[in-house]
Amino acid sequence: MRNGVVVDIGGSGTRIGAVVDGRVVGVHGAEVATAEDLAAVIRAVDPLPSGVGVSVSGHVDADRGVIEASRAAAWAEGPMRSLLVALLDAPVSVIGHGDAHALALTQLPDVEFGGIAISLGTSLSFGALNRHGALIHPCGPTGWDLGHWRLVVDGGTTEAWWGLGGHGLYDLEREHGDGAAEIYAHRVGSFVVDAVQLFRPRTVLLTGGIVVGLGEALHGPVAEQLHTLPHTIPAPRVVFSPSRDTALFGAAVAAGLAMPAAR
Question: Cβ-count burial of 97 within 10 angstroms (0-12 exposed, 13-18 middle, 19+ buried)?
Answer without folding.
Answer: buried
